[in-house]
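Final report, closing paragraph on structural work. Over the funding period we assembled a curated collection of sequence-structure pairs, and we close with a single example.
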Amino acid sequence: MNVFVCSKNILNKISHKYNIVFIDFWGSNLFFDEDFIDCDHLNEKGKNKILNLSDEELTKIVRYVSPSMKEIEIDFTKY
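Its predicted structure, as stored:
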């Protein structure tokens, strides 16, 4: 088993054990070489992409957990 698969398995086990949402963007086809400054660090453009994606995913989670939040505008990129 390679390091990537092993790491992902460990993160999945931890997230299930402690009821933590694990949002995996690793396999996303939305990121390109020009979004990175090196093999695994995002540049400014990549940072903005991940922040927007994270904001969308966190908003979905909050609205799922608390349906009363459906009408409230949430912007996690401010935090």
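The two ends are 37 Å apart (CA to CA). The mean pLDDT is 84. We thank the funder for supporting this effort.
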